[in-house]
C-alpha cells in the first residue's frame, strides 16, 4: 500500500501538500502463513513451547526474549519497549510522545515518526517493538499513561495507529498494539475489573485496535486488568471472539509483563505468547514446562500450540525478518547501550515536536516574537534537570524541563535541547538578551519578571506508570493542576509583567482557570511532551519560523468535574459514561470547555469553502467477508466530502480541517458530533488547498448490540467541517 500512498501524494502536489495516507502495512498473510505452517510441521513440541514462552525477566538482552528454535533457524525474538523510541539503548532518538504526534494531526509525520522508530529498532536487532498504544485511550484526564498513546478520540487514535504501524513495519520491525483492552488507569491496574458494555467496547475502545488489525499489525499485548472479572489475558471473548474471529487478527497476542495468571485458561482463550516468561522475581512460570504437561495431559490441544507458533512465525515472515535481520546489538541490563543508530532522525523528532505545539492564546499578536528585547525565562521546566538528563531511572522524577512522562514507555536521551538554552541563543541572535530563573519560587519569579520586556514562564504536569511514585503520584495524577505550584508562579509573573507568555509541558490536561484570563497572560503555548528537540521546536514557533499548527487531541476543561470521569479508587470500573468521554461528553452535556478538542491558533487565518458531498452508503449491516479489521466493506469509501481551504492571512501556515459527523436519530445513543476525517494542509498566503475526506462505511456505522453487527442507520447524517470541534465552518448532509 506504500505504492498507492506515493501516487496519491504526487497527484495532490500540484495544489498544495494534501495527504492521502492511512493505507496500513502491505503484508501478505497468506504467503506468511504457508511458510510458517511448513516450519511448524518440522518443530518438536518443546521447540514450539520455547517459541511461545519468554526466557524470563532480565535473562536476555531485551525486555522480552523468546527461545530460539535452532532446528529451523528461527531466532530468539527480541521484544523491546517502547512507544516513543528504544528503551535502554544509548544511540537512539528520544522522539516526542504519542500524544504529541497526535497533536500534529499530520498523518505523514506520524508515519515518519513510526518509520524512524522502526529503523532504529531494526538497526539494534529488535524484532518486536512494544508500541504503538491505543489503550488506555484516555477516558480519565488524570490517567497516568495517556501520553504514551494518542487521543481519547477513537478515530484520531485509529488513524495514528494505522500510520505508526505502517511506518514501523515498513522499516522492518514488528509493531505491537497495546494495551488490549480496558487498561485506563494505573491505580490497581492489575486487579481492577473494567466492565465495558458491548456498544461502548465496539464504538470506542475496540475501534482503534480494529484499525490496527486492518493495518496488518503483527502483535497485540493483552493488558493487566480484568474484563468483567476475567483477566484480560485469559478472556476468550476479548482475545478469541473479538480480536481473532470478529476482527480477523492473524498475528499473535502476547501478555503484558507478568499479566498471565493461568496455564490452561490463557492458552485456550487465545493467548499466543507469555512475557517475559516469569514474574519479575523469576517465579510464576505458567507456560514452558507447565504448558508442555498441559498438552501431554490433553488440557490444551497441540493444535492450539501450533496455532500460537504459526502466528508468531508468520508475523516474522510478514515483516520480512527472515531476510538477514541484524543481530541484537545492545543489552538492557549491563550498560551496553549499543551503537548510534539515530541517523538524521533528529529532523523527524524536531518536526513532530514543533508541529504538535498548540497555540492556545495570543493577545495583541504578541507572538511571533520579532525584537523581543530583554526576556526573563522563568521556571524549573525551562532548564535541563540539573542532576543530569537521564539521572532518574525510567524518567521517574519531575526535575527540569518535562520531555516525556515516566515508566516503561521512556528512553534515555542522547542529548536534550532545553528551552532555556534555545531561547537564550535565539534571543541573542535576534538582538535581545535573556536571563534565567530556573526555579518555581513565586517570589523569585516575580522579581525575575519585573523590568524585563517579556517573561516566558514554564510550568508542567507529569504522570506515568504505576510502578514508580513521583512526588506522591502513583502513576495517575492526583489532580489536574500544574505541579510545583505552577499556578502561583504564573500569577506572580503575570502580575509583574504585562507581556507574559506561558509555556506548558504536560502529560495531559491541566486546569488553567487561576490565570488564563489575566491581562498579563498574553500568550499560552501548549508544548506538550516534545522529547529531545524541546527547545528547538519551541523557538521555531515562538519566533515564527513556522506558524503553529498543532490542535488539541483532547479537551482542556475548566474544572476536573467537567470531564465526568475520575480514577476509580475502589471496586470495579463499570464504564457508566459509555461512549461519552472527552468532547463527546462536553457536547452531549452542554459543558463549555476552556479549550475544545481540535482547537489551536495559527499566525495566519483560513477561510473554508462550502463542502460538496458525493456518495452515500446503503442502509443496513456490513456484510462483507472478514478481512483483517472486520467485515471488508467497513473499510470501503462510501462518501467523499471535499472543500477548499484558503490562507487568508499574511504568512504561510498549516491548517487542520476536521470533519464531524452527527448520526440520524434512528441510531440512538450517539454523541452529537464525532470526528470522522481530518487532513493537514500547508498553504502559502493567498493560496488555497483542496481537501478531500474519504468516509469509510465504518465511519457512518453504529454497533447494533442485538444483531452484533455494524449497521448504517437510515436517515440524514449531518456533516460539519471546521477548524476545531466547536469552530464549525461549513456543513452538509448525507441521506441514507
Ligand atoms: C509493562 C507495561 O505495561 C508495558 O507497556 C511494557 O511494554 C512492559 N511492562 C515491558 O516493559
From TrEMBL:
* The keyword Hydrolase is annotated on this UniProt entry: yes
For this chain's UniProt record, which GO biological process terms are given?
cellulose catabolic process
Q: In which pathway does it act?
A: Glycan metabolism; cellulose degradation
Origin organism is Lineolata rhizophorae
Protein's name in the database:
beta-glucosidase
Q: Which reaction does it catalyse?
A: Hydrolysis of terminal, non-reducing beta-D-glucosyl residues with release of beta-D-glucose
Q: Which residues form the signal peptide?
A: 1-18
Localization in the cell: Secreted
Amino acid at each position: 500500500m506504500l505504492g498507492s500512498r506515493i501516487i496519491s501524494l504526487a497527484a495532490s502536489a500540484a495544489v498544495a501538500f494534501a495527504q492521502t495516507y492511512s493505507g496500513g502495512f502491505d503484508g501478505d498473510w497468506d504467503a506468511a502463513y504457508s511458510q510458517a505452517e511448513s516450519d511448524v510441521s518440522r518443530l518438536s513440541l518443546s521447540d514450539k513451547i520455547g517459541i511461545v514462552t519468554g526466557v524470563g525477566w532480565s535473562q536476555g538482552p531485551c525486555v522480552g526474549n523468546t527461545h530460539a528454535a535452532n532446528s529451523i533457524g528461527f531466532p530468539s525474538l527480541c521484544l523491546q519497549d517502547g512507544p516513543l523510541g528504544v528503551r535502554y539503548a544509548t544511540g537512539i532518538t528520544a522522539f516526542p510522545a504519542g500524544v504529541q504526534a497526535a497533536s500534529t494531526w499530520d498523518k505523514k509525520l506520524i508515519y515518519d515518526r513510526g518509520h524512524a522508530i522502526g529503523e532504529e529498532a531494526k538497526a539494534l536487532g529488535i524484532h518486536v517493538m512494544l508500541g504503538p498504544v491505543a489503550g488506555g485511550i484516555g477516558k480519565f484526564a488524570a490517567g497516568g499513561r495517556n501520553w504514551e498513546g494518542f487521543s481519547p478520540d477513537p478515530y484520531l487514535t485509529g488513524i495514528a495507529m494505522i500510520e505508526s504501524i505502517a511506518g514501523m513495519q515498513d522499516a522492518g520491525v514488528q509493531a505491537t498494539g497495546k494495551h488490549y483492552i480496558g487498561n485506563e488507569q494505573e491505580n490497581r491496574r492489575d486487579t481492577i475489573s473494567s466492565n465495558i458494555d458491548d456498544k461502548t467496547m465496539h464504538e470506542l475502545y475496540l475501534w482503534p485496535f480494529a484499525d490496527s488489525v486492518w493495518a496488518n499489525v503483527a502483535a497485540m499485548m493483552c493488558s493487566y486488568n480484568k474484563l468483567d472479572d476475567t483477566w484480560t489475558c485469559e478472556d476468550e471473548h476479548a482475545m478469541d471472539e473479538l480480536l481473532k474471529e470478529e476482527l480477523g487478527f492473524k498475528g499473535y497476542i502476547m501478555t503484558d509483563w507478568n499479566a498471565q495468571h493461568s496455564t490452561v485458561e490463557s492458552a485456550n482463550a487465545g493467548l499466543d505468547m507469555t512475557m517475559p516468561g516469569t514474574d519479575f522475581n523469576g517465579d510464576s512460570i505458567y507456560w514452558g514446562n507447565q504448558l508442555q504437561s498441559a498438552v501431554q495431559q490433553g488440557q490444551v490441544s497441540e493444535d492450539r500450540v501450533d496455532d500460537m507458533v504459526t502466528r508468531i512465525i508468520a508475523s516474522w515472515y510478514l515483516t520480512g525478518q527472515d531476510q538477514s535481520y541484524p543481530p541484537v546489538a545492545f543489552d538492557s541490563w549491563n550498560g551496553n547501550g549499543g551503537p548510534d543508530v539515530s541517523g538524521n532522525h533528529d529532523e523527524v523528532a524536531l518536526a513532530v515536536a514543533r508541529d504538535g505545539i498548540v497555540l492556545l492564546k495570543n493577545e495583541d499578536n504578541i507572538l511571533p516574537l520579532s525584537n523581543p528585547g530583554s526576556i526573563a525565562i522563568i521556571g524549573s521546566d525551562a532548564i535541563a534537570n540539573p542532576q543530569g538528563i537521564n539521572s532518574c531511572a525510567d524518567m521517574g522524577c519531575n526535575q527540569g524541563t518535562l520531555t516525556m512522562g515516566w515508566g516503561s514507555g521512556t528512553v534515555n536521551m542522547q542529548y536534550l535541547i532545553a528551552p532555556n538554552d534555545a531561547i537564550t541563543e535565539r534571543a541573542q541572535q535576534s538582538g535581545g538578551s535573556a536571563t534565567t530563573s530556573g526555579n518555581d519560587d513565586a517570589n523569585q519569579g516575580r522579581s525575575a519578571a519585573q523590568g524585563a520586556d517579556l517573561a516566558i514562564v514554564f510550568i508542567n504536569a507529569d504522570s506515568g506508570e504505576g510502578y514508580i511514585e513521583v512526588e506522591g503520584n502513583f502513576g495517575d495524577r492526583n489532580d489536574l493542576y500544574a505541579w510545583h505550584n505552577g499556578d502561583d508562579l504564573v500569577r506572580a509573573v503575570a502580575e509583574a509583567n504585562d507581556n507574559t507568555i506561558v509555556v506548558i509541558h504536560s502529560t495531559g490536561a491541566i486546569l488553567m482557570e487561576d490565570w488564563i484570563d489575566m491581562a498579563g497572560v498574553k500568550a499560552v503555548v501548549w508544548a506538550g511532551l516534545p522529547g529531545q528537540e524541546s527547545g528547538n521546536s519551541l523557538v521555531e514557533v515562538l519566533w515564527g519560523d513556522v506558524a503553529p499548527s498543532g490542535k488539541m487531541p483532547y479537551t482542556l476543561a475548566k474544572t476536573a468535574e467537567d470531564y465526568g470521569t475520575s480514577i476509580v479508587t475502589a471496586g470495579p470500573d463499570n464504564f457508566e459514561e459509555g461512549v461519552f468521554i472527552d468532547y463527546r461528553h462536553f457536547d452531549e452535556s452542554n459543558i463549555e470547555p476552556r479549550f475544545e478538542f481540535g482547537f489551536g491558533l495559527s499566525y495566519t487565518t483560513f477561510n473554508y469553502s462550502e463542502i460538496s458531498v458525493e456518495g452515500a452508503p446503503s442502509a443496513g449491516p456490513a456484510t462483507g467477508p472478514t478481512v483483517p479489521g472486520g467485515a471488508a466493506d467497513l473499510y470501503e469509501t462510501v462518501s467523499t466530502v471535499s472543500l477548499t481551504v484558503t490562507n487568508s492571512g499574511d504568512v504561510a501556515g498549516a491548517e487542520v480541517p476536521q470533519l464531524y459527523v452527527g448520526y440520524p436519530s434512528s441510531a440512538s445513543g450517539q454523541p452529537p458530533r464525532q470526528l470522522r476525517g481530518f487532513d493537514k494542509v500547508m498553504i502559502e498566503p493567498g493560496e488555497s488547498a483542496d481537501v478531500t475526506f474519504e468516509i469509510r462505511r465504518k465511519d457512518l456505522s453504529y454497533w447494533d448490540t442485538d444483531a452484533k453487527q455494524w449497521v448504517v442507520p437510515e436517515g440524514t447524517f449531518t456533516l460539519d467541517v471546521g477548524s476545531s470541534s466547536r469552530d464549525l465552518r461549513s456543513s452538509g448532509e448525507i441521506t441514507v
